[in-house]
Automatic annotation (TrEMBL):
GO function term, MF aspect, one: microtubule motor activity
SUPFAM superfamilies according to UniProt: ARM repeat, P-loop containing nucleoside triphosphate hydrolases
Record-linked InterPro entries: ARM-like, ARM-type_fold, Armadillo, Kinesin-like_fam, Kinesin_motor_CS, Kinesin_motor_dom, Kinesin_motor_dom_sf, P-loop_NTPase
Binding-site residues, ATP: G708, Q709, T710, G711, S712, G713, K714, T715
This protein's name: Kinesin-like protein kif24
Protein localization: Cytoplasm, Cytoskeleton
Pfam families xrefs: Kinesin
Location of the Kinesin motor domain: 618-940
Keyword Ribonucleoprotein: no
GO cellular component: microtubule
Membrane-traversing stretches: none
Provenance organism: Rhizopus azygosporus
Keywords annotated in UniProt: ATP-binding, Cytoplasm, Cytoskeleton, Microtubule, Motor protein, Nucleotide-binding
Gene Ontology biological process terms, A to Z: microtubule depolymerization; microtubule-based movement
Length: 1054
């Protein structure tokens, strides 16, 4: 102790402003008496000692020595023992503590550790007016900017006592005391921990009463400023406390203050600034009071309040119209409220006017926030768009405003919402230069959130524009801009599934429309270059999409959408000869897709994408194997058709040698797809016919054939009423029509057959029809009855009716064999003018057969049917093969079948043939003939697999197209028979005539040349070479015809 006193004495002696000896003796006296057990009669002495120390502590240099001497701890001990009536001691002790803590953090720590804060708190209960100012003074000096004591004040209840003193009805009237209370509370409310302990409805009620009281007199501006700010801190994060302001019924008084209080010109500068801050704080109180969900409907339905706020919107005083804008923004948080505020009160127009007339970036931010709420309801989008909102708010996207990123972000959000599903607003974005501002913004900002939000503006514009038919110019402008690259980048780089899918859907629209192919060329490099950073590695869009399908944990639907997008890109790329794009997709995806084992939904889309990659899609040839039937199983027939992967089928043909030894000769064929007997019609549909449906909706002409031996399952595959490909297609057609994008289209159905070279309407009492050319490359079936259908059931009924009218007959292989080619024609037409849009033909070809299949006793009619069927199948094969090999000319006059289908083969068309085969060994020759026919239709170019071509049988043998005879039965040659023979071999005869014509032209050319000229020599050499080739072809045809003629003569002799 002596060392402490010695140090104190030395320090005090160095302070000239005080009587060091008097202060030292007072400290010694204080320490001595604080250690005594009996203090009765000594409180006057202690009071005098404290008065000396309190006076001394007013000198700044004295506070540290007194604190080091533990004067605070001694006083804390005495204050715990002093009787309540010793008010003078209380006052002087508080003076010492308050003065020692003034601007002295070390002494405040002594106060905190001594526990004196809680010791003094009960003194409030005495309500002694002379004591209260000293309590407040001590609490103020000790807690100023010192959070630990602020928390202690809240914990011990002192803060609540201070609040009670603020009640204008029952509290103190001493202005200085009130001001000190307010400053203490101001410190407490700025401390989050301390504030939470006092923030309750009791505090809010009293402080609001005091606020209203002070606003009326405006005498203590500093205190009023602290009061408003403290109250704001208390209610800011608590809906219940915000509601308390409304329940107290003081909103009108607060609004009156804002509207009616003016800042007088006679006020000092500081007073003007303080009054301005008070008005801002009161404005914020009102805004917070109107922000709770629980009170939103109640306040919105208060017509007086709503009208007053709308009137305040036109007030020229900043704080008044700002308050109204903020408050109305809080009430605009439901669709019903937003719609009424826009339609009835024209709030959006007022907000846009304010936005244009203020330079206050913070207020602009508030306006934009309110506008964004108003833009959410669909009904508001056209109204706000017509108020020039897009053009006004887009001004924030100028590069000069890049410092105001919050405002830019909100502006982008507003434009995005206004373009969502609204065509006219999307037009404004493109035509008014806003799109270029957005694209420029995306290019120069680094913030991922801002870039993605801006990119979504573009995706919304695309969605809105692409659903409108008459938007060619707008689509062109969009494709000519740099707007697609941000979408590609978003899809590649975003970590959010919803954003990725949004971009994918927009790109699907862009690549789905094949009318803008000329503008798509610049888009393909965006897909193939390694420009996009994925986890530190540069990748192309194609690679990213491959990873998303094969590796990512994206939702299945998004993966399906990616598959659709890649199919769209493949098709577009093929149309503009961007083969490198297709090859890249194939390289990145094909093998990975084949290794995947996804669920059924995704598998459908992956199969479609795989198919698109494995073929150019102009002509597709697939094979379907039916299961063994009951009779074949009873006969213990073997299944000789074995699958080898997804594209190859092996036929194990049973053979017998000359020595009667049995053996198996294998044959392998590869097609676009091979379907085993357990594959459902739906799976086959997804891989073969569904792309044709989609193509029809793109304005194309599609054709799906079923071909095969009688009884191999053609009609079941194609026209089964429950599972047929046309049934599944019809369901998808009407599902697509129900989408808004295709609402302008209608479905028309025609159904006819080709029998014996003539056309018959199956929907109109088998009326005979005539195919004609309309001069525009389209085949028109004159007289064909077309029925408009509105739903799936009606279309099915129409098809069922037509199927019953079809020609059938009995053969050895089938009790009810189709003897005609049936063509179900589904057309999409414009609803308004019936203008053709797209077409899909389903063709169930009559079964291919040989004469022996008809039986020995078959009549001439059945033989004639077979001859016509085989002739038309040969002509069809030659047409399709010519088209697949990109030959410049393909003859469609070989049969009525090819004539009526001409417009489905050329131009904007796609064709898929499904060859159906029987797997039983007794039908091996039929099966091989069908597969050879299919193989000739589409020769797979550029493949090294030796199994692809089975060359040891000629086409004629493969189809077994010949005019068979009835064995052992003589027949009479008639004109009709000759006509049938000539009709059947019209193609061969016509080709022979063509060869003769070419040879004659060559001779004429040579005769016209000078005998001694170089021209003559060259032409002569060319003629010899060509003639040699020509004669070989001609001899082949002639020999074939000779065989036919000999057979005819033999049959005649017999």
């Amino acid at each position: 102790m002596s060392s402490v006193i010695d140090s104190l004495k030395q320090q005090l002696q160095e302070i000239p402003e005080i009587n060091s000896a008097e202060v030292l003796n007072s400290v010694l006296c204080l320490k001595e008496l604080s250690g005594q057990t009996q203090l009765e009669g000594k409180w006057i002495q202690l009071t005098n000692v404290c008065k000396i120390l309190g006076d001394a502590a007013r000198t700044e240099t004295v506070r540290t020595p007194l604190g080091n001497a533990r004067v605070i701890e001694d006083l804390a001990t005495l204050l715990q023992r002093v009787p309540s009536e010793e008010t003078d001691f209380h006052i002087q002790a508080l003076r010492v503590l308050g003065n020692m803590c003034f601007d002295h953090e070390d002494n405040r720590k002594h106060v905190k550790d001594s526990g004196v804060i809680s010791t003094i708190s009960p003194f409030f209960q005495s309500r002694k007016k002379e004591l209260l100012p000293f309590i407040c003074g001590f609490y103020l000096n000790s807690s100023m900017d010192y959070a630990p004591i602020q928390s202690q004040l809240s914990e011990c209840g002192a803060a609540k006592s201070l609040i009670e003193l603020m009640d204008p009805d029952t509290g103190i009237t001493d202005d200085n005391c009130v001001t000190m209370c307010m400053k203490i509370l101001d410190g407490i409310t700025s401390n989050e921990e301390a504030r939470k302990m006092v923030a309750d409805t009791f505090a809010v009620k009293i402080l609001v009463k005091r606020l209203v009281y002070e606003l009326k007199c405006l005498e203590h501006l500093d205190m009023l400023d602290s009061l408003a700010c403290s109250l704001l801190e208390i209610i800011m994060d608590d809906d219940i406390l915000q509601n308390e302001i409304v329940d107290l019924g003081v909103l009108d008084e607060l609004l009156d203050f804002l509207e009616n209080t003016t800042i007088e010109t006679g006020l000092a500068k500081e007073e003007k600034e303080t009054l301005g801050e008070i008005k801002k704080a009161v404005m914020r109180l009102v805004v917070y009071a109107l922000s709770t969900d629980s009170k939103m409907d109640e306040l919105f339905n208060d017509q007086y309040l709503l009208s007053r706020l709308m009137k305040m919107m036109t007030n020229p005083v900043d704080v008044v119209h700002q308050c109204a804008a903020y408050a109305l923004g809080n009430l605009a948080r439901s669709d019903e409220h937003c719609i009424e505020l826009v339609e009835k009160y024209k709030l959006s127009k007022h907000l846009l006017d304010l936005f244009q007339h203020t330079e206050n970036a913070t207020f602009q931010y508030a306006i934009l926030g309110c506008l964004k709420h108003l833009c959410l309801p669909k009904a508001n989008k056209p109204l706000i768009g017509n108020e020039n909102c897009i053009q006004i708010v887009s001004s924030t996207l100028d590069q000069s405003k890049d410092m105001l990123k919050r405002n830019q972000f909100l502006s982008i959000g507003i434009i995005k919402l206004l373009c969502t599903g609204n065509y006219k607003n999307a037009v404004k974005v493109i035509d008014e230069g806003v799109l270029s501002l957005i694209v420029s913004f995306i290019k120069r900002v680094d913030d991922p959130a801002a870039k993605s939000e801006a990119t979504r503006v573009i995706t919304n514009v695309i969605k809105a524009i692409w659903v409108e038919e008459d938007s060619k110019d707008l689509r062109t402008k969009l494709l000519e801009s740099d707007a697609i690259k941000p979408i590609v980048e978003l899809v590649c780089t975003t970590q959010f599934d919803v954003l990725k899918n949004d971009g994918i859907m927009a790109l699907n629209l862009v690549f789905s429309n094949k009318h803008y192919l000329s503008f798509m060329a610049p888009l393909f490099p965006l897909l193939t270059t390694d420009d996009y950073d994925m986890n530190g590695q540069k990748m192309s869009f194609v690679t990213c999409m491959s990873n998303d399908i094969c590796e990512s944990k994206l939702p299945v639907q998004i993966k399906c959408n990616i598959c659709v997008l890649l199919c769209q890109i493949i098709e577009a790329a093929s149309l503009v000869e961007q083969r490198d794009v297709i090859e890249l997709i194939k390289t990145r995806c094909l093998n990975r897709l084949k290794l995947m084992k996804p669920d059924d939904v995704l598998q459908t889309y992956i199969s479609t994408l795989t198919n698109a990659l494995e073929t150019d899609q102009k002509i597709r040839v697939c094979v379907r194997k039916r299961p063994l039937n009951k009779s074949e199983m009873l006969a213990k027939e073997k299944d000789i058709a074995q699958m080898s992967g997804m594209r190859t089928i092996d036929i194990l043909e049973p053979k017998v040698k000359l020595d009667l030894t049995q053996y198996v000769e294998p044959h392998s064929f590869t097609f676009d797809n091979v379907f085993d007997s357990n594959i459902s019609n739906r799976t086959i549909y997804q891989k073969t016919t569904r792309p044709l449906v989609d193509y029809m909706f793109e304005g194309g002409k599609s054709t799906c054939f079923a071909f095969g031996q009688t009884g191999s399952g053609k009609t079941y595959t194609m026209l089964d009423p429950k599972h047929g490909l046309y049934t599944l297609a019809v369901m998808d057609i009407f599902r697509l029509l129900n989408k808004g994008r295709y609402a302008h289209l209608a479905v028309w159905v025609g159904y006819y057959e080709i029998y014996q070279g003539h056309l018959y309407d199956l929907l109109n009492k088998r009326k005979k029809l005539i195919p004609r050319d309309d001069g525009k490359g389209n085949v028109v079936i004159a007289g064909l009855k077309e029925v408009r259908v509105h739903d799936v059931d009606t279309l099915m009924e129409v098809c069922s009716f037509g199927s019953r009218e079809r020609t059938t007959n009995k053969t050895m292989t089938n009790q009810s064999s189709s003897r005609s080619h049936a063509i179900l024609q589904i057309c999409l037409k414009q609803s308004t003018n019936n203008k053709p849009y797209g077409k899909l033909n389903f063709i169930d070809l009559a079964g291919s057969e040989r004469g022996t299949d008809r039986g020995h006793n078959t009549d001439a009619k059945v033989r004639m049917e077979g001859a016509e069927i085989n002739r038309s199948l040969l002509a069809l094969k030659e047409c399709i093969r010519a088209l697949d090999q990109d030959q410049k000319h393909a003859s469609f006059r070989g049969s009525k079948l090819t004539m009526v289908l001409r417009d489905s083969f050329i131009g904007n068309s796609k064709t898929c043939m499904i060859a159906t085969i029987s797997p039983n060994s007794s039908n091996s020759d039929h099966t091989l003939n069908t597969l050879r026919y299919a193989n000739r239709i589409k020769e797979f170019r550029g493949e090294s697999d030796s199994r692809l071509v089975d060359t040891h049988v000629e086409d004629a043998e493969a189809m077994d197209i010949e005019e068979e005879e009835e064995e052992g039965q003589p027949r009479r040659i008639t004109k009709e028979h000759i006509k049938i023979f000539l009709d059947q071999h019209w193609v061969e005869i016509h080709e022979s005539e063509e060869y003769l014509k070419i040879a004659k032209e060559m001779v004429n050319d040579i005769n016209s040349a000078a005998m001694d000229s170089l021209e003559f020599y060259n032409k002569y050499r060319s003629y010899l070479t060509s003639l040699n080739s020509l004669l070989e072809k001609k001899l082949s045809v002639i020999h074939h015809l000779q065989d036919k003629i000999k057979e005819e003569l033999c049959s005649d002799d017999e």
